Amino acid sequence: MDLISIETQEENNMIFKLIQQNDVPYIWTSGRLCDFKGCENRRDLEPKSVYGWFWSANREKMAPTSQAPNGWGFNPWSRTGHKKVKQPDNAEFDINGTNESCMSVLNNVYNDGIAWHDVACYHEKPFVCEDSEELLNYIASTNRGIRL
């Protein structure tokens, strides 16, 4: 299993409902900013805060943070955060020099409802995982006879 990639509004609604019903303050997702070796000099990722996000679990590029993903009725990124500006805001960089390179879903932490936020990757948070065909196929091919 991998951390969840929230690629549809239905999946997002399911996660938001899970967070709300269980009063979970936040969760990790597989959302990741492409700010590491191999991402430099990629004009298609600039500005990175808008175009540089992807789902690390399946390596799919995320919609630009400035707009709602295709087929969605809203933009899931929060309209506020620590700096009181739209997410992602890389706020922790101003606090301690740490980039906010991971994506978390926060539950009303900034009086903004349940919404997506960029967060420094070292924080401890609960997480939600999902099966992936790629991983299931790998396990099946390397473990003959296993029941999945």
Write the layout of secondary structure elements.
Layout: E1 2-3, H1 9-21, E2 26-33, H2 48-51, E3 53-55, E4 60-61, H3 91-96, E5 102-107, E6 114-119, E7 129-130, H4 133-142
| Largest sheet, spatial ordering of strands | 4-3-2-5-6
> How many DSSP helices?
4
CATH architecture: Roll
Strand content: 15-25%
What ranges have pLDDT less than 50 throughout 5 or more consecutive residues? none
Gap between N and C termini? 12 Å
Helical amount among residues, as a percent range?
10-25%
**Could you say which structural class the secondary elements and strand pairing correspond to?**
alpha+beta
Strands, count:
7
Describe the structure.
This protein has helices at residues 9-21, 48-51, 91-96, 133-142, and strands spanning 2-3, 26-33, 53-55, 60-61, 102-107, 114-119, 129-130. The chain is an alpha+beta fold. It has a single domain (2-142), classed as Mannose-Binding Protein A, Chain A (Roll), CATH 3.10.100.10. Strand 5 (102-107) and strand 6 form a beta hairpin. The longest helix is centred in the N-terminal third of the chain and has 13 residues, at 9-21. It is globular, with a radius of gyration of 16 Å. The mean pLDDT is 93.
